[in-house]
Model the fold of this input.
Amino acid sequence: MLEVQRATVRVGDWSLEGVDLVVGDAEVLAVLGPSGSGKTTLLRAVAGLQALDAGRILWDGDDLAGVPPHRRGFGLVFQDFALFPHLDVGRNVEFGLRMQGVPAAERRRRAAAALERVELPGIERRRVATLSGGEAQRVALARALAPGPRLLLFDEPLGSLDRGLRERLTGELRRLLSSLGVTALYVTHDQEEAFGLADRVMILEAGRALQVGTPEEVWRVPDGEQVARFLGLRNILDGRVTGSRAETAAGTIPVPPGTPEGPVRLVIRPGAFRLDPGGTILGQVMARTFRGEAYAVEVAAGGVVLEAHLPRAPSPGDQVRLAVDPAGITHL
Done:
């Protein structure tokens, strides 16, 4: 089990400040945040490539302070997979073993076993240039697995790929990590990637951990406005709750059971809206954008602009009435 306790790194005016996390055995934890949030700094600190100014990093209770990267027993998977184009697949996978001084015959045996684990048996002599994106991903994973790491660290390995390939490889990687039962810390700026891969997600912003939970917990109950806005939830309204309804600038809306009475800050997911002649929100369409399965429609209502995802799109300038499903509302 990996434990990070109050990890702090200071670089000029910026700092990674007091970050705590725990990654359990065979768990995948994704660290999700925008550029400059400290994701890679945290990963480098765990790997031993970045010294801490304060805090501790432990593995199974043992403090790793002073333990160099090559003795931590952690495997790294880099952005773009970082395969060596002048080496064939087998020698790529053997690379870490060679650095450890493992004899040639044992290197070949362990490389072959690692390739079999990622469902690519017998391709040791293939050139890297002939690999598909999915094969390259699995070869990079095999290279990280060959030395027998106790933790895998992923540094945005899909970050530069086009969207379609990234979505496909996210699914493949999730299946592989689950079947291998490895413990992994995965950093990414992509929300769908993190939610698709991880057992739990940490939101990191400006060097501080804002929330940790399952993908469902983080999405359904964001811990504060900063998390909600990072997740793309723009419909944040002040309201006053009485019973099962809230008065807001946009209109009266239903709220889910358990919403506290009195002044509240509400988050409405775009998919919670529907066109309804009897809806309690009256607004004017300002813009619409086709998103494939639905339209993202901006509606001005009561001095605020709401984003609604609707299966059909009224035209800009149209007046509409919207109803809201209370299941798509939470409070901050």
Notes: The first helix runs from residue 39 to 47. The chain has eight helices and 20 strands. The longest strand covers residues 2-11.
